[in-house]
Amino acid sequence: MLSSSRNANHAVKTHELPDENLADLLPIAKKIAIAIGAENYNILQNNGRIAHQVVDHVHFHVIPKPAATDEEGLVIGWPTKSPPQDELKALHAELLEKLQQ
Amino acid sequence: MLSSSRNANHAVKTHELPDENLADLLPIAKKIAIAIGAENYNILQNNGRIAHQVVDHVHFHVIPKPAATDEEGLVIGWPTKSPPQDELKALHAELLEKLQQ
């Protein structure tokens, strides 16, 4: 587990962290992945109790996936929806606009 | 979905990306999280087919979790083990040593 706790900034969720702190995190996750030596792994970061966040401080999990089984490593469920194309297009346009702000 | 494809560097897995490219990614994920406006969300990055990676290019998912249900957003299973304390201590020491290299 990789935590931002050594930073001066305390933040519960990722979007609350300054960019300069965020920039530091993935190079450290990379070091951890290499140290673990896992060929297959997941990097997971949870924001909010209902999104599986247990510790109220931004932190990243580097989780080795040793085998293609539900008995080890991260198991993922990802229910999908199929909204109408025009709804998707509208959402896409809305997000693009917000990203340009 | 946030991909590193606009970088000059193509990499399949996170630990293959140069630090300077990695540093760029989370500030972008933050922008996306803010644009989505989700209070609760997960950031997920998969490395390797058996670790749920479908596209062979480093990419991050920013996944809103609208409700505490298995019907929406990311659902996580995380089988844990309870190895003996001395095994954990040995692994901890080994990882620390590798991280200092």
UniProtKB/TrEMBL annotation, chains A, B:
Highest rank taxon of the organism: Eukaryota
Xref: Pfam families: HIT
Q: Where is this motif: Histidine triad motif?
A: 57-61
Query: Which intervals hold domain HIT?
Result: 1-73
Q: Name one GO molecular function term.
A: catalytic activity
Q: Which GO terms describe its biological process?
A: nucleotide metabolic process
Please give the coiled-coil regions recorded for this protein.
none
Instruction: Output the InterPro entries linked to this UniProt entry.
Output: Histidine_triad_CS (IPR019808), Histidine_triad_HIT (IPR001310), HIT-like (IPR011146), HIT-like_sf (IPR036265)
- Active-site residues, record numbering mapped to chain: H59
Gene3D superfamilies with a match to the protein in the record: HIT-like
- Name by which UniProt lists this protein: HIT domain-containing protein
